[in-house]
Fold this sequence. Notes:
24% strand, alpha+beta
Amino acid sequence: MAEYFFTFKAKKRRKPSEEYEGVLKNYRFYIEYYTQLNGEPKISFPVRFIETILHFSKDLGGEVKEIRKVKLSNGSYYEKPTVVLPNEIAFRRHLLFSLTVSTYRKPGKLSTLRNLVLNLNANFLNILTNMAIERYAELKASGSPAWVWYVLRVGRAVKTLYRMD
């Protein structure tokens, strides 16, 4: 039986962002999903609202396996949790939730999104998440610098489909 994990990774920005202060000024956080803890991530993309994403994983029955402190190049640290999700449906629900959350700028409608994803039909859920995973694999292999935006379009489509934007 496959195990499903996700964790976060900080990547240095090319130039500091004036929108943020602290760690976010120089680093962007990515979420990485794995089917096994070793190897390449199945999908990875920039993420927002990390605390909300962690709470949603607990709603799905996920548990934090470990929390590591990672030192950044500027000398500060961030906590890197590794979360285990109980099954494939929980993995796909969490993936769709984090894809859609990453397209929001403000946390106003996240509870509505949470309820929507928890009650979404499993067949439709599989279609959407397969699209995102296939786009990620295709675009990452092609070396396109715009791969992030094409992957996040799945999240934007969910917002548009359910009129949550």
